[in-house]
Amino acid sequence: MVNDEWPIAYREVHLIGGAYAINDPNEKDKVYIFPNSLDGQQAVLTIPNYPKLFYAIKKLGIKKIVGIEFLSHVNQIDGISPTEWRVYSGYKSNKWAHIEAFWKWGDISFEAYKSKNGHLWDLSKRMQHQITTLNNSLQYLSLTYRRQLKSKVADGFKDNERFENGYSSYIYDSFQHFLFDACMLRDYIAEFVFHYVVPLDVKSGEKHMTTTSKIYKKCYKDREVSSDYEIYFKKICSSNGWLNELGVYRDLVMHACPLSMPKQRVWIRTGTIELLGDKLLPQIIAPIPKKPLDLKNERNSFKYFSDFERQANAFFNQANDEGESIDLLSYAIEVMDNFSMLLWLTIKQSPLKGIQQNFGPHNIIGNVQTILR
User: Fold this and answer.
1) Residue 320 pLDDT
2) pLDDT one-digit tens code per residue, 335-373
3) Alpha-carbon gap, residue 319 to 102, rounded angstroms
4) Pairing mode, if any, of strands 44-46 and 30-34?
5) Strands 44-46 and 2-3
6) Beta-ladder partners of 273
7) How large is the C-alpha radius of gyration of the chain?
8) What average pLDDT does range 109-131 have in this prediction?
9) Burial, 270: exposed, middle or buried (Cβ in 10 Å; 0-12, 13-18, 19+)?
């Protein structure tokens, strides 16, 4: 529904560190930031029009946006239907690049069905499914940050404090799910690359491959590539590439240790975001190691267990090795931006460009009922 070019929609913006912003259609030009700043003041923004929401938030000083929930129908308010969740993307300045990639893979799936291309039909549907699953994982991860931040604010927030409470484990649990979901999408993309990008002579008789590491080793590691796409794919799968690093984090969880105890017991940290007017907005930081491969190798080689005193001292040390860690939600946002780019570059490699499916009397079975409330 649109009212004077201002859609009637309740918008809840997920921000870095567990903070969030609310834009209510009852006060359509106001944006409320939560929680309050350290001095107890609430930031309230005034926006001149509907699209300026994100610009205003960034101008305030909050540079990282996770995503946004829309409520635009009474069924969403009543809980009959879920809110519309969208990941916020930084790829090519298109904030909806991720959801638009989901739609495009649906168009490819529909054309593949029409063309009776069974594999591409199935793979593009799987791609769509996993994009949604990964998006939902990011939303849940963001909500675990929010619950952690709310609990700390209610208990008395102090900047630069290390702590753990009953909400802390949910952050690392949800991040592990995020890693597994991300690596499933990675492998679906790699399967597409094997079937529709890798030259036939390079496959050496292989009919089907589905894992990124095997496809990289067989088809890319020792091969000179010339197309822009293959150059990029080879780079991100190499030892210093972001797609490889994603797999290392996943492997660390699967084969070595939870990320909540890589070398020592990890403590959640409090921090602040500096806003306009020298206000400080509370945030949560959940650290993970910057160099997961080194840690994975140390644990899997059994070197980590060679000195019990060192192991015990490290585990109970509260220093957190802050110079050697990064915030896991910040890392997840970076991964999503990278996936937006990879998905769109991969779409351009598709042998079918996609057909948008239209719905009407020709393909709807049964009656269509419109309910006005």
Assistant:
1) 55
2) 999 999 999 999 999 999 999 888 777 777 777 766 555
3) 42
4) antiparallel
5) unpaired
6) 281
7) 23
8) 98
9) buried
Q: In whole angstroms, what is the distance from residue 53 CA to residue 321 CA?
A: 36
Q: Report whether 83 contacts 70 (CB < 8 A).
A: yes
Give yes or no for a contact between 98 and 339, defined as CB atoms under 8 angstroms apart. Answer: yes
Q: What tens digit of pLDDT does each residue of 259-299 get?
A: 887 767 788 999 999 999 999 999 999 999 888 888 888 88
Tell me the per-residue pLDDT of 199-231, one tens digit each, with 9 for 90 and over. Answer: 999 998 899 999 999 999 999 999 999 999 999
Handedness of CA 132, 134, 138, 143 (dihedral sign): positive
Asked whether the predicted pLDDT for residue 3 surpasses 50, the reply is no
Q: Is 24 exposed, middle or buried (0-12, 13-18, 19+ CB in 10 A)?
A: middle
Mean of per-residue pLDDT scores for the chain = 92
pTM of the model: 0.92
